[in-house]
Specification:
By secondary structure, the protein is mostly helical. It has 2 domains: about 190 residues, Serine Threonine Protein Phosphatase 5, Tetratricopeptide repeat, CATH 1.25.40; about 220 residues, no CATH class. The strands form 3 sheets. The protein has a 3-stranded antiparallel sheet with strand order 1-5-4, with no helix packed on it. Strands 2-3 form a two-stranded antiparallel ribbon. Strands 6-7 form a two-stranded parallel ribbon. Strand 6, helix 24 and strand 7 form a beta-alpha-beta unit. Helix 3 runs parallel beside helix 6 and helix 16 packs antiparallel against helix 17. This is Tetratricopeptide repeat family protein. InterPro entries: TPR-like_helical_dom_sf. It comes from Mycobacterium dioxanotrophicus.
Amino acid sequence: MTIIGDLERARHLALAAEEGAAKELLLSLMPQIEQADRDDYALEVFAQLGEIYLVRTAYDGVVEGIRRIRECLAVHTEIRAGARPEEAAKVTMTDAEVDHMICRYTRRAEFLSAGLAAARGEHDDAERHLAALIAAGGEFAELDAEHARLICYARILLATGLCDDDLYARSEPMWAEVLDVVDGHLDGDAEESDHLFVAAALGYGRFCVESGRLAEAEPWLRRGGARAEARGWRLATSRAQLERAAAAWSAGDIAETQRLVHEAYPVIAEHARAHDVSRSWLYFGLIRLAVGALQEADECWSHAERHWREIEKPLHIHRILLQRSWIAIFRGDFDEARERVAQARQMLDSAPRHSWLQYARLDSHLGNVWRADALAEMGFDGFGQPGRNWHQVESRHAEGLAVVDCAPGSPEYTRAIEKLQRAADLKVPAALAVDSVRYTIPDAGARMRWASCVSAPLLAGAFAVAWESDNVELTCELVEYHSARGTFTAEPHEQQVSDWTGTATAAVPVEAELAPELAIAAAAPAVGGTGLTRLGPLPPLRMDPQTAPIMSRYRDLARERYGRDVTAAGDAWQTWP
């Protein structure tokens, strides 16, 4: 085989996700390339290795590849500028070939830099490298198709990186640009085009699943999976099955989730990409939890946590810790559950892109732990008891009828009410802060997704602790709050849009679905037009002329903890006739 032929064969292996074989082949070519004294071949090796290391999360290798490419290009740029006459005599390529090489691999270096920044969560830097890649023009028409593919692939990596950091709203316009390119507008090499299409289809399909757009996700995942299967790309085919399993779980189809994950996992495990392996173990755990196998579920989630720690994904680690805290709750070990929540908070603190919304959800979940502790005080029959083995815990969990047996006024009742009040102090402010966003979302579909995936579970939890603590006043106030629907004005209102890219994202509720996937929230301040209706937060509500507006203390807590004004400025509404 010639060097060019081996370079092409290495690329085919990488496209098929056979990165180990591709890497070995590329490294074996370096002695021949050095003997041939062809810097363009060496740059191709560095570029391909950089992409392999990027896929395998070996980021030090990507950094080294970028450095080697840029150093070589800098030397040839100086030679072309006449700054190194002694080196110019050693160059065996023509000036046109050197210019072609500089143009091509400058773009490849910018692509790798954009992908690396996106993977590390340095999203502003990633966008700057993308802009540089787009601007890296040249007079070589034969490179136009490759340039277009690099730009599209970089956008896929940037959008995926944003989604990994819960910045779904910010990723949405980038996905729109990707789809505009891949859906019938790809030129050049068919295999490269298919690879790009599969990456886009699976990435966008996952985005849709995690943002509640299941109907839109299905055709993309099926098309991406079919294209990968036609090429014989086993890992991409299995990854498509994994994304479809996530969609099935979101739709409540446990049997289909189990079928797809079990079919996909052998190939995913063989290729050992930590993120895909972790997500597989996540769904293995969810499936086992659904059938009451608590010990097996916890073991599955421990594997997921270990792999996410390997690749240092703090947001994913924080979510799997919250997930594992449910097992501690079911075992009746509430101190362990609170410890896992504390660890999750530490991971969230360490993530450079955390948002108020993630803290609101974490506080709401901590409220779940206190609520469960209170119910255990009341004799709730679904939780295990200290000192019991796994079999006893699982049997009690399966046989529980979700009833309590506690006399009002008893010491157990008093302790339970105190714990329920602690739960309410966590859950009610979080629910108010999160639900206040719902009234600011102008798009009906996004508003529905926010309400169903984010607001409803947190509000349901707030109602539950109010009801279980026999707090009639708080229960009535929550009913009154929930009964109000938007605000009105007789004045025309200029439409505005604020930047929610950093904060308006949320997770599909662990409380309801026991799945830490994410949901998009496209939000805006109060908007409207020339009619009477205006979307916006509610003003203060007063139920009794002799009292202050309802839930004042909880609204103050929402402001202190999350910086959210959950009521609009203005006079309080009177809710009596």
